[in-house]
Amino acid sequence: FAIDNPQLYHLMFEQMMLLELSPEAKDAATASFGTLVDRVHAAMDSGGLAAGDSTDAAQQIWSAIHGAVSLEIAGVHFAHDREANFAAMVDSLLRGLAPRA
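The structure assignment produced for this chain is given below.
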């Protein structure tokens, strides 16, 4: 979505910080992040991710993905194959959050 719609992504995540959000917009943002927290919590409960604070883990995931996307949109290209590089980043992140054997 972000790579195909960089202006909208910028508006959603960069310009939003400069604006005073309506209560409805704040609720929508909270609900969006809450969905990620819920998914992370479910992954922890099923053993797919190490037990811990699901909000902290969700923030780590959100931050890593947002950072990678923001850099790509800004024209910072670290790899020749963007999709493979992004998949490797997500894989590394999830392995870091996986249960220790």
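Interim note for the steering committee: The chain has a mean pLDDT of 86. The longest helix spans residues 23-46.
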